[in-house]
Prior knowledge:
The protein is an alpha/beta fold. The protein has ten helices and eight strands.
Amino acid sequence: MLALDFAGPFNERLASARRILEKTRGGVAAVKLNHHLILPFGLEGLQEVIADCKAKSLPVIADLKMNDIESTNLNIVDSLLTYGIDAVIANPFVGKEEGLGEAIEVLHRRGGGILLLVYMSHRGAREGFGLKTEGGVPLYRVFAERAKQWRADGVVVSAKSADIMRETRTIVGKRCLIFAPGIGAQGGAKTSATDADFMIVGRSITEAADPTRVLRKLNSG
């Protein structure tokens, strides 16, 4: 999955996104849009980028880490689907009842998908996702269980935490896809993501002098 993350001048970001999409044609399975583009341009301003993805048959995932009350989540979902987004990444911490439950139902009813965070790829992830319940179960295991129970389409698990990814796979099974961020710019290696269905890669490609060569190397083997 290609993460279209750009930190350069705002007036260059959309053109950069479309250029990278063209250079990676045929080599990526989906596209992730983060706050780098969604905040400055909004869904309306991203219609050309989304159209480029649709023309290449690439699903578009909004990385919002959705984590709010039900009424807000439902508005988020309606906006995303209306503007051509196919799925959203959400934080299961908010819970199901009056949290994510109805939003997941709406997404599935309207042909969309949801990916739940299980373990992120930054160093501080253990400070939150590694916390333990009163019974001694780490939150990432709780979140993996929620992904299975709530019929999530996928989970996000750091490629830098192969053991946690392995645990997650045993919980969610094969039906639920695992997406692994953290490879490349964040120091993770492709060899640590053997239990993942897809790698999430952004800066290693978007900031590369030759994005096509980097992508070819990632896809080899």
